[in-house]
Amino acid sequence: MDQNADQITQPVDGIQPIGRVVSVTGSQAVVLLNEDGAGSKRATEGAELGMVLTVETPRTVLLGVVSALSVPVPSQREAEAEVRIAELELVGELSKARNEFVRGVSVYPTLGELVFRATTQQLERAYLWNSPSAVRLGSLRQDRSIPAMIDVNELLGKHFAVVGSTGTGKSCGVALILRMILDKNPKGHILLLDPHNEYATSFGDSAEVITPKDLQLPFWFLTFEEMIEVLMHGQKAREAEIEILSELILLAKASYAANRGRELNHVVRRRADDFGGFNVDTPVPYRISDVVAFIDERMGRLENRRDLTPYRQLKTRIESISQDPRYQFMFGNLTIQDRMSEILGRLFRVPVNGKPIAILELTGVPSDVVNVVVSVICRMSFDFALWSDGRVPLTLVCEEAHRYVPNDPDLGFDPTRRAIARIAKEGRKYGVSLAVISQRPAELDPTILSQCSTIFAMRLSNERDQDIVRAAISDSVASLLDFLPSMGTREAVVFGDGVTLPQRMRFDDLDQDVMPRSRAARFTERWREGAGEAGFLEDVVDRWRAAGAMVPMNPAQDEAIAEDAPPATQITINRRAETNGANAPAKPAPTPTNTPR
User: Fold this and answer.
1) How many other C-beta atoms can be found within 10 angstroms of the C-beta atom of residue 344?
2) Residue 534 lies in a domain
3) Are residues 315 and 228 located together in one domain of the fold?
4) What is the dihedral of CA 169, 172, 174, 178, to 10 degrees?
C-alpha cells in the first residue's frame, strides 16, 4: 500500500478521536462523544448534523453521516459531565486493499471502536469521481475546499429532479447544472421547456431560443386527442363531432398525399403501405381547408337539417381557432409543407451548429393549449429517440413540472401526463432523459419523482413537500432531509446515482450576466423611481396587444402598413412576410375570408 493510501486509510497524526462506538444496529451506529481530555473541544465541534465521520476496521475505513445529536441526561450544574450521543448512518467504506470508495458496508464496526472526523484526503476519495464524465457543481458544506462533483452519465442516464421553494436559488442551480454539463459536452442535445422566459440569458449564443412568435408546430403534428383538446378546450365534447372529425382528417391526409408531386407522393404512399396505411394519429401533412371543404360537401348532401348541427358547430370551431392569430404557430402557414425534419432538427439540435441547447419559451402561448404544446414536445422527444435507435441522446428539461403532471388525476391534460410518464419509465432504454424541476413536489405526480435516480433537494418549508421527497428517497441517509427547512439559499442535499454518496453542498455562484431572469422585483426601489412618465401606459398597452396578436412586427414596414392598410390587412401581410422569409417583400394581401388555410 502506497503513502497516499496510508494517508487515506489511517488517522492523521494530531487528530484526536471524537468518541467511540457503543451501539450498532443494521446500517446505523451510536457514538458516545468524548466528555473531556486533550482535543475534546475540537473533536465535539466535528460532530455536527450532516458531517461525515469515520470508523476504522481491519480491512476498511467506514464512513458515516451524523443524522442526530442528543444529550440523554443533561447536566444540572455547569461543571458536571454529561453524556453526549451522535447517531451515524453508515453509507460506505474506503477499502484499504483497493484504495477506493464503495457504497454499502461489508464489515461492521465493533463496540468500542474509535470514531474520527473524516480527513480531507478521505473526503476527496469519497466524493470525487475518477470518471472523465464528472463535472463540478459547487463545494461541500463540511469542507468548502472539496468540490461537489456529479457524474453526467449517471445523472442524465437515469433522470434527475431539482425541487425547492421559490427564492431558494433553484433556477440558478438548474442553469449551473446545464452550463457545466454543456461546457464539457459542447455537442450535447438539451431541450428546455421554459414557462417563465427566464433561462435565455444564462446560455447566450449557445442557446437556440424559440419563442411563440417563431415557433413552428404545425397542427398536423398533433394526435387526434390533442387536436380535440385544441378545438374543444373548455367545451362539452360531442361524440358526433368527434366521429365526423376523425373521418374527415383521414380523408384530408389521403387527399394531400394524392395531390402532391410524383416524388413526394411515392414516398408518402410507400411509407403508408409499410405501416398498414395512415391512421388519424400519423404525423403526415394535410390541409385544414380540405377538412372544411369535406364538411361543406357533407352538409350539401344532407336532407334533414337537424343533422347539420354537428357539422356547423365543428366548422365554426375550426374556423375560429385556425384564424385566431394567437394560434399562428399551429395554423399560420399559408401553404402546407412537410418540414417535419427541419422542425425536429431545430428543437432537438440536430445538427448542433454551436447551440447544444434549445429553450422553448412558453410565455405567450395561449393558456388553452400550453398543455397540448408540452404534450406534443414530450411525445415527439420519445418518438425521436425511439426511431433514431438512441443514436442522439436527448435530455428534456421540464420546468414547473407540477403544471403538466399534477398529483390530482382530474387536473392537467392526460396525454401530457402519459407522454412525460413514458419518458420517465422507458426513456432510459432509448436515450432520452428527463429533468424534473418543481417548487411544489407535493403537487407533482409521485410516480414521476420516483423515477428520478438523482434528486437535488433545496429548501422546502412545506411538510407535505418534504414528505413527498422523503418518500422518493431509497438511500439509508434520508435523515439528511431533516435539513430541508433550514438550508440557506443555493444549498442542496443531493441523493442518488449521480453522486458517490449523499451530500449537502452549495452551488457555485453564477456571473451576474448569466443569471436567470427569476429575481424578485425590488418593490421599494421601483416605487421610489416611479413609472408615471408620459406614454408609459400606452407603451404597456401596445406591447400587451402585440403579444396577444402573436404578430412579430417589422420596423421597416410599420410606417407604410399603418398608413395604407387596415388592421386586419396588417396581420395578413405580416403573416405572409413571415411565411416567405424575413427579407421577402410583403405583397398586398387579399381581404380575409372565413375559409381556414
Assistant:
1) 17
2) no
3) yes
4) -160
Q: Give the C-alpha separation, 377 to 385, whole Å.
A: 12
Contacts of 366 by beta carbon, 8 Å cutoff, 6+ apart? 324, 326, 327
The number of folded domains in the chain is 4
434 in the same domain as 343: yes
The three-class DSSP label of residue 23 is strand
Contact (CB, 8 A) for 117 and 87: no
CB 190 within 8 A of CB 455: no
- Stronger pLDDT, 453 or 592, i.e. the higher one: 453
Residue 174: CB atoms within 10 Å: 24
User: What is the pLDDT averaged over residues 207-232?
Assistant: 91
Tens digit of each residue's pLDDT (9 = 90 or more) over 538-573: 888 887 776 555 444 343 333 333 334 333 333 333
Q: Is residue 379 in some structural domain? A: yes
Residues 364 and 490 in one domain: yes
In b/e form, how buried is each residue of 364-380, taking b as 16+ CB within 10 angstroms? bbbeebbbbbbbbbbbb
The Cα–Cα gap between 28 and 266 comes to: 68
The answer, yes or no, to whether residue 590 has pLDDT greater than 70, is no
Q: Which of 289, 313, 331 is the last residue of a domain?
A: 331
- Is residue 88 within a helix (H) or strand (E), and if so which, with residue range? strand 85-95
> What does pLDDT average to over the chain?
80
Instruction: Give the per-residue pLDDT at 268.
Output: 47
Question: What CATH number is associated with residue 93?
Answer: 2.40.10.170
> Domain end: 297, 331, 365, which one?
331
Query: What's the CA gap between 385 and 394, in Å, rounded?
Result: 7
CATH code: domain of residue 358: 3.40.50.300
Average pLDDT for 143-166: 92
Is pLDDT above 90 for 254?
Answer: no
Q: Is residue 528 one of the residues assigned to a domain?
A: no
Confidence of residue 45 (pLDDT cuts 50, 70, 90): low
Residue 390 shares a structural domain with residue 498: yes
Q: Which domain holds residue 260?
A: 220-331
User: 479 versus 398: which is more confidently predicted?
Assistant: 398
Among 32-46, 472-486, 503-517, name the most confident range: 503-517
φ and ψ of 568, to 5 deg? -60, -40
- Using 50, 70 and 90 to split pLDDT, how confident is the model at 334? low
594 contacts: CB under 8 Å, gap ≥ 6: 319, 323
In terms of domains, do 92 and 166 share one? no
pLDDT tens-digit series, residues 365-376: 888 889 999 999
pLDDT per position as a tens digit, 414-431: 899 999 999 999 999 999
Angstrom CA distances, 105 to 11, 35, 97, 259, stand at 20, 29, 15, 69
**In contact, 96 and 60? CB cutoff 8 Å:** yes
Q: What is the pTM of this model?
A: 0.80
The Cα–Cα gap between 360 and 192 comes to: 6
Q: Which three cell numbers stand for residue 366?
A: 395561449
**Judgement on whether residues 226 and 211 belong to the same structural domain of the protein:** no
Q: Over 80: is that where the pLDDT of 231 sits? A: yes
Residues 212 and 227 reside in one and the same domain: no
Q: Cell numbers for 360, please give them.
A: 422553448
- Position 273 scores a pLDDT of 45
Whether 251 and 324 map to the same domain: the answer is yes
Strand ranges in 195-332 using DSSP code E only, listed in sequence order = 207-210
Is residue 520 assigned to a domain? no
